[in-house]
């Protein structure tokens, strides 16, 4: 084990839980092609079972986020019991106002009151589901926006959005939260109604204490300093959730930490610095990914391990030495301290950490040897799409 890795750092890692998106287990693809895979889940119960396998082998992922209506079931109490029997809980409920014809020109921002109400009612339905699943968070990502200058009144859309969100927020129970996700483009290309953290912040600030911002790491312009946004939202007490993934170009939804592990490290340094780490921090660590060409379950295992690995490195940061160098104005020494933590190979220490908790030292190898993949490929015939294009 690395001599820099103290037992206190190991304790902090035990308090990390990552929320898996149900849709990561279904077939997905790009707008060019969905490549179907054998063994993908046929219903939400099987998605939960796959998520439980990720948790069993990593000890990191006890929560599954659902997407409505992709994960609509007749009996959510039964789904909840099924999850709990597998040691899992049902997490964030994600709404969906981006697949109905009615929402072509917008949902919560639409100029037609009836369409706005339809979108609000959908969120009421999601809140009902939350009551049954025991979920804390309602996550709202909107596809709303316009493609052409002049297409609609962008100021009027903000006003309508504020009004719709207020109606949804009022419907939440006392222990429930609204988490608003921003995205700078796509599917609308001229303007997006919640394009950036500032707009999301303005809306959630107006709503109240239990309204927070969701930061999806793939939803920024190239070159954006995401860790600065993390620091700012934590400072303002308004960071509610992450949607982790990685991107080379746009909203690629690739495995978190694959494209830029250093960026993930820098984000986690700010998370820890700002009090956003751990089960009582109020910040949920969700993945929002699609595994289009790789197998889904090992894709999720790799993802949670990447988050843990960069968290461990961020925990290694010698904050006292960093603070001294910063106070002394020693630019290069401060940078050295940060890079020392980033360049530390924590993998052997993490293998030991897992073994000491009765987990496989190498979860990827354990999954390959487990037989689960072979079993689901035989048993599950006619698996479903993740939801995209379904
Ligand atoms: C679309 O960009 C998106 O990936 C958002 O990030 C949502 O979180 C996700 O879909 C699921 O609705
Ligand atoms: Mn997202
Ligand atoms: Mn996205």
From TrEMBL:
The lineage of its organism: Bacteria, Bacillati, Actinomycetota, Actinomycetes, Micrococcales. NCBIfam families: RhaI_grampos. Signal peptide: none annotated. It comes from Leifsonella bigeumensis. Gene3D superfamilies: Divalent-metal-dependent TIM barrel enzymes. GO terms for molecular function: isomerase activity. The keyword Isomerase applies. Transmembrane segments: none annotated. Residues 74-247 form the Xylose isomerase-like TIM barrel domain. Keywords: Carbohydrate metabolism, Isomerase, Manganese, Metal-binding. SUPFAM superfamilies: Xylose isomerase-like (SSF51658). PANTHER family: L-RHAMNOSE ISOMERASE (PTHR30268). This is L-rhamnose isomerase. InterPro entries: L-rhamnose_isomerase (IPR050337), Rhamnose_iso-rel (IPR013457), Xyl_isomerase-like_sf (IPR036237), Xyl_isomerase-like_TIM-brl (IPR013022).
